[in-house]
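User:
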Amino acid sequence: MLKTMLPILCLGLLANTLSADIIHPESLNNGDKYRYAFVTSTTRDATSYIIADYDAHVQLAIRAADPSGLGAISWRAWGSTSTVDAIVHLSTTTATWDGSDVPIYLIHNGGLVANNFADLTDGSLSHPIHLTELAQPVDPYTQVWTGTLPDGYMIEGFTLGTPRDSDAAWYGYAGPHIFDVHWTDVSHDAYTNQKHLYGFSDVITVGSAATVPEPSSLVLMTLGIGTLCVSRLRHRRRNTA
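Assistant: Predicted structure:
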């Protein structure tokens, strides 16, 4: 029976590599929209004045972990440079980014962080952003580069990457006990030092089509499972010859 079912099982495994359903917050219904947020397990300096560099760091972290297909979604960093404010960066619609104002949840089916952008920037969070892309909680005083005030706008003289006399950027604390302004607004440090980043996803719709992993990951998974299946089938044929 097992030998007969093997080709079918292999095809099923291959098909499953083509899609990965996103795990949505349990309180949401079909058609609801939201964003996910997390703090990176990886770190970097704050020397770049280009916000896209920080976005790339966040995107690389989530794609490396790729929890529940979220690696294929666009992600942006929470950070302010001399040319862009963090809240504007999140809320501006582009050809590849939905600026809709929707609730924000902690990644891995976590709690509600904020009801909307106004709630995100009112001085406190409903739930800390304290889980990494690997679903690991961070220390309450984990330092996260932000360059950003509690209202979501840049801290003059302490933004990410701006040349200045102090050569310092602003950071916040991530952790289970940090609910107030400290998540984004604590102090400054030399911007050559290594710290974490906050990542926010593009808008996700409950019930939307399954997310397909990036091509490189898909190829590796498919080849791996395909090789296993071919090996099993050849072994079966030798035993029946």
